[in-house]
Design a protein that fits this description.
The structure is a homodimer. Chain A has helices spanning about 10-15, 25-30, 40-60, 95-100, 120-135, 195-205, 245-255, 260-265, 275-280, 295-305, 325-335, 400-405, 445-500, 500-515; strands at about 20, 65-75, 80-85, 105, 135-140, 145-155, 160-170, 175-180, 210-215, 220, 340-345, 350, 355-365, 370-375, 375-380, 380-385, 390, 420-430, 530. With about 525 residues, chain A is of the alpha+beta class. Chain A folds into 3 domains: about 25-220, Heat Shock Protein 90 (2-Layer Sandwich), CATH 3.30.565.10; about 240-305, Helicase, Ruva Protein, domain 3 (Orthogonal Bundle), CATH 1.10.8; about 315-530, Ribosomal Protein S5, domain 2, CATH 3.30.230.10. The termini of chain A are far apart.
C-alpha cells in the first residue's frame, strides 16, 4: 500500500458528495430495468403491469375477471391509457401506497402463487407517467360498498404517494379503474406489442374476458372460454428443504412460539413432532427447547444441515395453479390451429432445495405454428411465468435456454429454426426467480432448465411419432401410386391368360391393394395427446 | 363491471396483508438480480464489486492503483475473501452506509464517468455475506492521517448499517481492506471465473497493478504496464439535449438562481445568454425571468421542445475517459498475440439526445484470438463498460447485438463463429444504461448499437484488407512456385540456343522472377492500424 501521488484527493473531500437515494430515484434513472426501454416495449410494460394486477386481484377475491383496456393517442408518442376491471378494488386507506410507493404491496412477503410478486409494477407506471408527462394517474375504485376517486402521483425523492382530489362517488360498480397519460410510448401491432401481449394473456388465462380498444378505435375482444374459476392462490408455509440458515434465523427471531421445536412445527410445512425428534438426533448440540429468539447462526446452520439428512414429504402442491392441459390444448388449437399438437403437464418439482414449481409444455406443428420468417415458418417459443406472457429478453430466459439445448433431430425436427413448430412453456411457482426487476426472463437455474427440457422432450416424443408416421405415410403413398400404375396392365394380361373379365380382375386387384394401404384413406386422427 | 361471485374476498381482507419493504429485503429475496446466480458467478460478482470500487476510488483520488485479492476455501462452497487497495480509504463517519446501505454512495447523483454508478455493489456484498454465512465484513481503512478497523453488517429490514468493534489503528498504510466470509460460492478457473475477470480488468486498466492469491496458494500477478494516470473523472453539467421535461422541472425546483434564464445557464453546459435569447424567441409564452421554483410542467415542456430546435455545440467530451488506442493495442498483443489487429477509437457521440458516450473497438485475428471451441477457434467478443469487463448476460447486451448484426462476409470472415477472431468493445459514458441491476449487459438502445457497429466495421475494413492480402499472397505464391519449377528447364534450353552458361541464365531468370514477386519475400508488416 504505497504509491500515493502528491495531488491525491482525500477521502473526506470525496465523501462530501455522499448521499442516500430512494428506490424511486433509482428506477427513475434506470427505468429501462423496469421494462421501460423503447417506446413499444414501454407501452406493453404499462398494460402488462395493470392487467397482471387485475388478474391477481380477481383471482384472490374469487371473481371471474372482465378486463378492459383503452388506448388513445393524444400527441407525438403520447397516449392516454385506461384499464378497468371488476375486481375487489383497493381500500381508500391503501390506494396511495399500492399505486405510488415502490416495494409496497400485499404480495412480496407472502408465500403464494401470484403473477405479481414484488410490489413494483403499478408504482413503476405511476413513476413513468410522472417522468414522461408530469401527470398523476386518475383512479376510481369501488369495493362494492364504498367508492371513491382520486389523483395519485409519486414523490420520487421520498418514494411516497401524493394523493389529491379525493372524492366519494356512488358505488354503482365494483372494481378498479386506472387512467393515465404516458409519454415516450408507441402503439404498434408487433410481436412485442399490446395486442400480442393480450392475445397471449387470453391464451394462458381462458377464464378471463379481455377487451381492447386500439388507438384507431377498433375494438378487439378475447371472450372467456371457460367459466370455472382457477383455484384461488393459497398461502402455504415454506418447506424446510427450501430454508437457508439466514431464513431460519430471521423466522426464529420474529417467532412468537416459546420453543424452537414448536416454532418450527408452526412456521414450516411437513415439520411434525416426529421430524423434530429426528432433527434432534442429528443436530445433537442444538437445544430445541430454548426460545427461538435465542437461536444463533451456529444453531441454525446445524439445523439446516440436519434438515438435509432427514426424509421429507414433498412440498404442498395444492398451492400450484397451472393453466391446465385442456386449456392449453384448447388455446393452441384456437390460436395456432396446428396439424399436430401434444401437451404435457409435469409433476411438481422443487428448486433451491424446497421451492415448488410446475412446468407445462405444449408443442404445435403445422398449421399456423411457428412464426413467419423470410423463408417460411420458423420455430418459436411462447414463454409464460405464472400464466403471464413473457415477450421480452428471451435470450436470457431459462425457457429459451432449455428449448435451445434440446436435440431436435431426435424428435424428427431437422432444424428448429426452420420448421413450422411452436413450443409453449408455462412455469408456475410461489416464487419465480426472474433475472431482472422487469420480470421478463426466468433466471437460468439448472433445476428449472432441466425440468423444462424434460417437459418439452415428453411432448416431443409424441411429435416424433407423428412426424415419423408422416414419413412412413409418404413412403407408402409413393409405393401405392407405383403399384396402381401397373394394375391396369396386369389386369389385361391376367384376363388374357385366365379368360376372366378384365374389369373384374382390375376391381379385385384394386380392392386388394387398397386394403393393404387402407391407412392412407383414413383422415389423419386428431393428434391431441396428453400424458 | 359485474359478475361478482358470492364468496368473493373483500379488498379490506386482502389489504390486511399490505406491507412496505426495504430495498435490502427486495435484493435479499432476489439476489440473482444483483449477479448472485450460480456459485461461480456469485464469487466473481463479489470480486467485481470490490475491485470496481477500488479502481474508482483510486482514479478519483489520483492514485495509481495496487489491488490485492486473496481467496481461501474455508468450507464446502464457503470462501474467505480479502480485497485491499492503496486508495483514499473511507472516512469513519461514512463507512457503515458506504458498505451496508443499498442505494447510498457518492456516485449515483453525480454526472461523472465512473465504473460504479448505483451505490448498490458493496452493500450487496455485505448483504450476501450476511445471508450466506451470517458474518459481518471486517474493514480496515486509513485515509493517511487516521485509520480504524470495524465490523459491518446490514440490518436488512431497515436497509441500515450495523457497525461494531470500531477501533483506532495505526495509520501505517493508506487504503481500504475488506475481508469477508461468503457461502454459496465456488472458485473455478473458467471463462466466468475470477481469474478471467481480473485478466480482463488488467487488460482494460493497464495503469493498475493486480495481485491474486488463488485458493490453492498460487499467486498470479498482473503488473502495471503504463504508469500514466488515466484522466481523473470530471464532474460535468448535463447537456440541454439530454434533458427531459421532468428533469428540467426537478432541477428548476431545487435551483437557487433567481431567474429561469440564469438557472439554465448555471445548471447546464453550453447554455449562454445568446442561447437563452434563441429559446425565448421560440418558446414565446414562457417567462424566462420568473423564479425557477415557479416553472410549470407546461413551461418545461415548451422549453424542452425549444431546446430541440436550437443548434448546440456537442456535449463536453473532456469527461470521457477511454482505455486508449495504444493501451488497447498493447493489451491485445500481450494477451492474444494475433497475426493481425486493428484498433479504432471513434469520436464521442450522444444517446437519448444528450448523454455523451464513446466507443472503442479492436479486432484481432489469428494467434490466440477467438476462443477454443470443439472444432478449432471460434469468434468471441470481449465486452467492457467504462473499462469494466462484462462476463455475464452477453446475449442481452448491445455489444453482442451489434457484433451479431455485422455482415462479416464483407470483411472476409465467412462465419464469425468459426474463425480465430476476437472483437473487443469498450463503451464509456457518464451514464451507461445497463439492462439490469447487476450491470452485466448494456441496454440495447439503437443509438448505442449503431455506434458500436460503426466502430467494429471501421476496424473490420482493415481486417478485410489484411485477409484479402493474405489471399492474394497465397495465389501469387502458387504462381511463383509454378514458374520456378520451369526455370531450370528453361535455363538449359536457352543455354543450348544461345551458348551462354546455363548457371548464369538460371541466376538471371531467378532474379527476374524474384523481383516480380518480391513482396513475397518481405516479412509481413506489423498490422496495427489506428485511425
Amino acid at each position: 500500500m504505497a504509491a500515493i501521488q502528491k495531488e491525491a484527493t482525500s477521502a473526506d473531500e470525496i465523501f462530501k458528495e455522499f448521499k442516500e437515494h430512494s428506490i424511486s430515484e433509482f428506477f427513475r434513472k434506470n427505468s429501462q430495468m423496469l421494462g421501460y426501454a423503447g417506446k413499444v416495449r414501454s407501452l406493453t410494460t404499462i398494460i402488462h403491469e395493470y392487467v397482471t394486477n387485475s388478474l391477481d386481484a380477481c383471482e384472490e377475491a374469487g371473481i371471474l375477471p372482465d378486463i378492459s383496456v383503452e388506448i388513445k393517442e393524444i400527441g407525438e408518442n403520447k397516449y392516454s391509457i385506461k384499464v378497468s376491471d371488476n375486481g375487489p378494488g383497493i381500500p381508500q386507506s391503501h390506494v396511495g401506497k399500492a399505486l405510488a410507493a415502490v416495494l409496497a404491496g400485499t404480495k412480496f412477503h407472502r408465500y403464494m402463487q401470484q403473477r405479481g410478486q414484488q410490489g413494483i409494477g403499478a408504482a413503476g407506471c405511476t413513476l413513468f407517467a410522472k417522468i414522461t408527462t408530469g401527470k398523476p394517474i386518475r383512479v376510481k375504485s369501488s369495493t362494492g360498498k364504498q367508492a371513491f376517486s382520486c389523483d395519485i402521483t409519486i414523490d420520487i425523492k421520498n418514494n411516497k404517494p401524493l394523493v389529491t382530489e379525493q372524492e366519494k362517488i356512488e358505488p354503482t360498480f365494483r372494481g378498479l379503474e386506472i387512467a393515465g397519460e404516458f409519454g415516450e410510448v408507441k402503439y404498434e401491432n408487433s410481436d412485442h406489442g399490446v395486442l400480442e401481449y393480450l392475445r397471449r394473456t387470453a391464451l394462458s388465462n381462458p377464464h378471463c374476458s379481455i377487451r381492447l380498444v386500439e388507438p384507431d378505435g377498433k375494438e378487439v375482444s378475447f371472450p372467456r372460454s371457460v367459466s370455472d374459476m382457477p383455484k384461488r392462490p393459497k398461502l402455504i408455509k415454506p418447506h424446510p428443504l427450501g430454508i437457508g440458515t439466514n431464513d431460519l434465523l430471521e423466522f426464529a427471531h420474529r417467532a412468537e412460539s416459546r420453543k424452537v421445536s414448536s416454532f418450527m412445527i408452526d412456521a414450516f410445512s411437513r415439520v411434525t413432532q416426529n421430524k423434530i425428534d429426528e432433527l434432534r438426533a442429528i443436530a445433537k448440540d442444538v437445544d430445541f427447547d430454548k426460545n427461538p429468539s435465542q437461536l444463533t447462526w451456529d444453531d441454525a446452520e446445524k439445523i439446516v444441515a440436519a434438515i438435509k439428512q432427514v426424509k421429507w414429504i414433498a412440498p404442498d402442491l395444492d398451492s400450484m395453479s397451472t393453466i391446465g392441459e385442456n386449456q392449453v390444448s384448447a388455446a393452441i388449437k384456437n390460436i395456432l390451429n396446428p396439424t399436430f399438437m401434444s401437451v404435457v403437464e409435469r409433476k411438481p418439482k422443487v428448486f433451491r432445495g424446497g421451492i415448488p414449481f410446475v412446468v407445462e409444455a405444449g408443442i404445435a406443428y403445422g398449421g399456423n405454428a411457428g412464426k413467419s420468417g423470410t423463408q417460411g415458418a420458423e420455430g418459436n417459443t411462447l414463454r409464460f411465468g405464472n400464466k403471464v406472457p413473457l415477450l421480452f429478453d428471451s435470450s436470457a430466459c431459462a425457457i429459451t435456454e432449455a428449448v435451445k439445448n434440446i436435440d431436435w433431430k431426435r424428435y424428427s425436427i431437422q432444424k428448429f429454426e426452420e420448421e413450422p413448430v411452436s413450443v409453449l412453456v408455462n412455469v408456475s411457482s410461489v416464487y419465480i426467480p426472474y433475472s431482472g426487476v422487469g420480470k421478463q426472463a426466468i433466471s437460468q437455474e439448472e433445476e428449472i432448465i432441466d425440468e423444462i427440457k424434460l417437459a418439452v422432450q415428453d411432448a416431443g416424443r409424441n411429435l416424433q411419432r407423428y412426424l415419423h408416421g408422416m414419413k412412413t405415410r409418404s413412403v407408402q403413398e409413393t409405393r401405392y401410386k407405383m403399384i396402381m400404375r401397373y394394375v391396369s396392365q396386369l389386369a389385361g394380361d391376367l384376363s388374357e391368360i385366365t379368360g376372366d373379365k378384365r374389369e373384374e380382375i382390375e376391381a379385385k386387384l384394386k380392392a386388394l391393394i387398397e386394403g393393404k394401404y387402407k391407412a392412407l384413406f383414413e383422415a389423419p386422427k386428431e393428434q391431441v395427446q396428453e400424458e
